[in-house]
Amino acid sequence: MRGVTDRRPMPRGRAKHTQHGEEKREELVRAAFDLIAERGFEGLRTREVAARSGVTVATLHYYFPTKEDLIRGVMAVVVQQFRRPEPPDRDSPASDLRTELREVLLSRRRQTRQTPQLFTVLLELTTRATRDPSVKAIMRESEAEWREHISSHLRAGVEAGVFRSDLDVPAAAIVLEALTRGRSMLRMVSPETLADERVNVEIERWLTGKSKQQSH
Amino acid sequence: MRGVTDRRPMPRGRAKHTQHGEEKREELVRAAFDLIAERGFEGLRTREVAARSGVTVATLHYYFPTKEDLIRGVMAVVVQQFRRPEPPDRDSPASDLRTELREVLLSRRRQTRQTPQLFTVLLELTTRATRDPSVKAIMRESEAEWREHISSHLRAGVEAGVFRSDLDVPAAAIVLEALTRGRSMLRMVSPETLADERVNVEIERWLTGKSKQQSH
Amino acid sequence: MRGVTDRRPMPRGRAKHTQHGEEKREELVRAAFDLIAERGFEGLRTREVAARSGVTVATLHYYFPTKEDLIRGVMAVVVQQFRRPEPPDRDSPASDLRTELREVLLSRRRQTRQTPQLFTVLLELTTRATRDPSVKAIMRESEAEWREHISSHLRAGVEAGVFRSDLDVPAAAIVLEALTRGRSMLRMVSPETLADERVNVEIERWLTGKSKQQSH
Amino acid sequence: MRGVTDRRPMPRGRAKHTQHGEEKREELVRAAFDLIAERGFEGLRTREVAARSGVTVATLHYYFPTKEDLIRGVMAVVVQQFRRPEPPDRDSPASDLRTELREVLLSRRRQTRQTPQLFTVLLELTTRATRDPSVKAIMRESEAEWREHISSHLRAGVEAGVFRSDLDVPAAAIVLEALTRGRSMLRMVSPETLADERVNVEIERWLTGKSKQQSH
DNA sequence: AATGAATGAGAGTTCATTCAT
DNA sequence: AATGAATGAACTCTCATTCAT
User: Fold this and answer.
1) CB C55 under 7 Å to nucleic chain E
2) Nucleotides on strand F with an atom closer than 7 A to protein CB?
3) Which end of chain A is more exposed for a tag (fewer CB within 10 A), N or C?
4) Nearest CA-CA distance, residue C109 and chain D, Å
């Protein structure tokens, strides 16, 4: 049921906190993440976060002086999740477009399908970003990173002749990003009506410039 | 400065509430809407809603027994806003595609640009929908309505030969809806990097199947 | 046991609070005063103040948004107590010096003997003044007022030939004030060893310049 | 900047604590003293005391099992400061009265001017004495000692013919003690209006029984 | 001799809600 | 139709204290 990291020992030698403490911190952040996903920021209670981690509020405050600090911790995890470092593989055979497109460009969707909580929390954070400049700043940075990632894939596709040669890559990146976000958002309200496969096909047509018959 | 309707008095003779009472109710809902836009559900305080409406909390509770009731009132207003009854004008000359496309299909974007608060509140409601089935139900209905609206426009466009003949209309409707939502969402975080015009051009290419040179 | 005001109906028509509310406010301040006297600022708990006034903490906060506000209320009462408006009676026969001296100049002592709590709280406030400029300002003002009051009495005494003609009135006022405070302070630690009568006689000698034999 | 003693290492071979431990204890007490002076008992936090001494709270509790123990340590230091062992020098020429008077009798004032913190803490302790019998007992003892010290000086002055022969020495000692305390107290609130020199002159007149003209 | 981790008990404050008037 | 007063329940946060290491 747990949403984020799968607790691995993780023996990092930080300055202030021991290995044991670091684990506890992560457990608390994970519990907070789960609660935000379940009940939103509105329903985030320090006492419950602590209880789920098997400690008391006092202990929670030992690791995170304020609730805000805890939320920052959650934010860091979420942002971390959306960081996808693998660059496009230029030598991969462009034969199977559909596979590559979905593997790479729609990977975020797969990710959020695995942990639908992730998008819920992202939505909460976006909401927060409206009002909290520090949240906004972090999200913006994470977003720029992601967009650049998409762009590099698109460029590779254009060069490989898989995508339309006149594709406006930066604009397309925005379209894809908006699309991904929008789909996740719609899925929260009515998941069953989204005709994923047909939607994907339409997007491919747009990117390749080829009609249905041609792509088969 | 007020965000939603400036609807005038509305003299309906309801059973329970007088005309004056109805006005007060609307004023309270409007104040609540503004507050949700400004601070989110998290920051919605009945006392402040009341104060902004020039009454006390006790009076607010006279009109809305519980906070939930008040929120339901806000929801009704938001859903109302997204209901767009005008059907596509089949006799309109298809000459200026770009105009029509933007006028009709991207109208929601224009709407939310006029009152960016609207999308903020919609975001909050979407968030809520995750957890509150009654909110989910209402949003889902509103969404279906909107999607059907888009579809009818798309169908008209295909028939008029403006859009590609092999356009998968239901899938395209979903793409457009997701796109619209996604763009609004991105706009909340980084409004300046969205290259609206170039993005619109790309979407047109997809819908018409024509490349840049051809469309000029 | 109650220390400060003796609850009188006191029908003042303030803007914001009704008569009933005003009474409650005073009762709360009185309870806070008592608690400060008993346990010091250190031991002042809002919950107990409320309980002693027969209400809950929430109600306390209805009247005094913060604890600081409540303390300010207590301060106002204490300062009020030390305000002595009666000017010296210039026509009074100077015959009985000792009576006048004690009646007027040492009156504060009498006051604080009646309600020893008063000095305890004053001591707490003085302590606070060290750190809180707003407390300091109020106390300073109250002090200046009192010093001027003493001075006017001293001047009257000098003119009436009761006190030494070369008495440095401003300096003497300071001496008397310091003396009064100091005695109260000592009394808190060892009340039984203060030989009040003999001390008063010594002060008279200083003010009149006459030795024991002469003054008899 | 430190307030109290700069007493060096003090290598006593106690049973329980080593030399190093004794030093640490003193450092902690000194830090506690400073904090009480700065923020009062109200603002005394063990964590901060420990931090200022370069250790953790756990270590502080190793030396002082409870907070009360630490406070007792502070009290001991303060009382120590007010212990003035030098007896009056009977052979000193009584020629310069003013010098002696100030040197000896008003020495406490000088002391508290050097370290104004000392009086602040004394004030805090006096406040405590109201409620804590053990503090009261210690302060009372320290006070008696000091009073006896003043008395011996006064007696010497009377015998030397410097002070009035009919001076009621015990009463005068109380007057001087109260005066000193009171002046310190006033100084905390309004230090600039105290006309020290003129006040001292008035006190001399009282002690010597001589008017201004005669004493020059 | 020293500490990181943990905690119980309680602090001030907030807020939706109620009710007599 | 409206409100001043009151409250219960809950919230975040604090702090002296303990204990295994």
Assistant:
1) no
2) 1-20
3) N
4) 13
